[in-house]
Design brief:
Rossmann fold, alpha/beta, P-loop_NTPase, AAA+_ATPase, about 250 residues, single chain, Fe-S cluster assembly ATP-binding protein, 12 strands, globular
Length: about 250
């Protein structure tokens, strides 16, 4: 479903210097599987998510990104989103003045139009929004507020998953979805993510810690260090990291 081959990516630092963050990543996530990316700060986890989804400022200098048999490396972010890629941000942004319900409706219809599908009517959208919001304990009053403005960390992360439930992407990239969540919010978010697991959908879960993977069970765990995948294995690899830390993998990648 998602196939990354020998991916190199650089960014421009604040001092104007160019810095390579990804140094030859190869990764394949088949449909129906959940893969986890774990690694220390600065290893390239978020950069990988930005490179795949086409964020400005992250220049792919070598390698390829293939999604459902189509090369997407030169596509704009909105084109990749219309193809079915979804990124849940580590730090969701606030959008003052834009009610959350309007934002969600416009996002859904923009993607439907891009795929040549009919827009969802206002009554049908409201029915959909109520149903999905209830799954995540999100009130309709919350959805009338501007996007993420005044939201707690847990509310922002639940809203990210609500977007995914409404948009129903083909592939989800969750960038540290557990960041800033207490245990109750973590369970709610994880339950929402687990409802999206399907034989025709893939997921890439990016996290520092094993605790998220207690609730979102991965098929494969990859360890990222210095912009490279240094080891892959089953779910037990996350428990090994929890017990032993990243030090030996940082040494291997150096």
């Amino acid at each position: 479903m998602l196939k990354i081959n020998n991916l190199h990516c650089k960014v421009e630092a604040q001092d104007g210097a160019e810095k390579f963050i990804l140094n030859g990543i190869s990764l394949e996530v088949p449909a129906g599987e959940v893969h986890a990316i774990m690694g220390p700060n600065g290893s390239g986890k978020s950069t990988l998510s930005y490179a795949v989804t086409g964020r400005d400022g992250y220049e792919v200098t070598e390698g390829s990104i293939n999604f459902n048999g189509e090369e997407i490396g030169d596509m704009a972010p909105e084109e990749r989103a219309a193809r079915g890629l979804y990124l849940s941000f580590q730090y969701p942004v606030e959008i003052p003045g834009v009610p959350t319900l309007i934002f969600l409706k416009e996002a859904l219809n923009a993607q439907r139009v891009a795929r040549g599908e009919a827009e969802v009517s206002a009554p049908d959208f409201m029915k959909l929004a109520r149903t999905k919001a209830k799954q995540l304990s999100i009130s309709m009053d919350m959805l009338k507020r501007p996007v993420n403005v005044g939201f707690s960390g847990g509310e922002k992360k639940r809203l990210e998953i609500l977007q995914a439930l409404i948009l129903e992407p083909k592939f989800l990239i969750l960038d540290e979805t557990d960041s800033g969540l207490d245990i109750d919010a973590l369970k709610v978010v994880a339950d929402g993510v687990n409802t999206l697991r399907a034989p025709d959908r893939g997921m890439l879960v990016i996290t520092h810690y094993q605790r998220l993977l207690d609730y979102i069970k991965p098929d494969v765990v990859h360890i990222l260090a210095a912009g490279r995948i240094v080891k892959s294995g089953g779910p037990e690899l996350a428990h090994e990291l929890e017990a032993e830390g990243y030090d030996k993998y940082i040494g291997e990648a150096a």
